[in-house]
Amino acid sequence: MDIVRANKNEPVDAICWRHYGRTAGVTEAVLEANHGLADMGTFLPAGYPVALPEIEEQAEQAGTVNLWD
Fold first, then answer.
1. What is the pLDDT of residue 30?
2. Spatial CA neighbour of 10 closest among 37, 50, 42, 53
3. Which InterPro entries does UniProt cross-reference here (predicted)?
4. β-strand pairing of 2-5 with 49-52
5. What is the mean pLDDT of the chain?
6. How many CB atoms lie within 10 A of CB 6?
7. What is the largest CA-CA distance in the chain?
8. Burial letters 20-44, b for 16+ CB under 10 A, else e
9. How many alpha carbons fall within 13 Å on the CB side of residue 67?
10. 27 neighbors 34 (Cβ within 8 angstroms)
11. Residues in contact with 40: Cβ distance below 8 Å, sequence separation at least 6, in sequence order
């Protein structure tokens, strides 16, 4: 588990994007791994430590069809 520090007024989903490169499914895992983090509000103070759990790589979605294809 990695620990990163939030930048000034950085939301949790931005930390997830910065570390994992995505937010879908990982923001929830980060909030579960950091009890009380959601109580801090939308924007975290500078330097606030956030534990980032190990997340499995997202499987590529097969069979997705777009209407314009």
1. 96
2. 42
3. GpX-like
4. antiparallel
5. 90
6. 21
7. 45
8. beebeebbeebbeebeebeeeeeeb
9. 0
10. no
11. 48
Question: Which residues are registered as beta bridge partners of 5?
Answer: 49
Amino acid identity at 17:
W
Q: Alpha-carbon distance 30 to 22, whole Å?
A: 12
pLDDT at position 57 is 76
Distance CA 59, CA 56 (A): 9
pLDDT at site 1? 86
Predicted local confidence at residue 61, as pLDDT: 60
Instruction: Give the integer Cα–Cα distance in Å for 43 and 39.
Output: 10
Q: 3-state DSSP call for residue 56?
A: coil
Q: What average pLDDT does the segment 20-40 reach?
A: 94
Q: Which one, of 54, 56, 5, lies nearest residue 30 by Cα?
A: 54
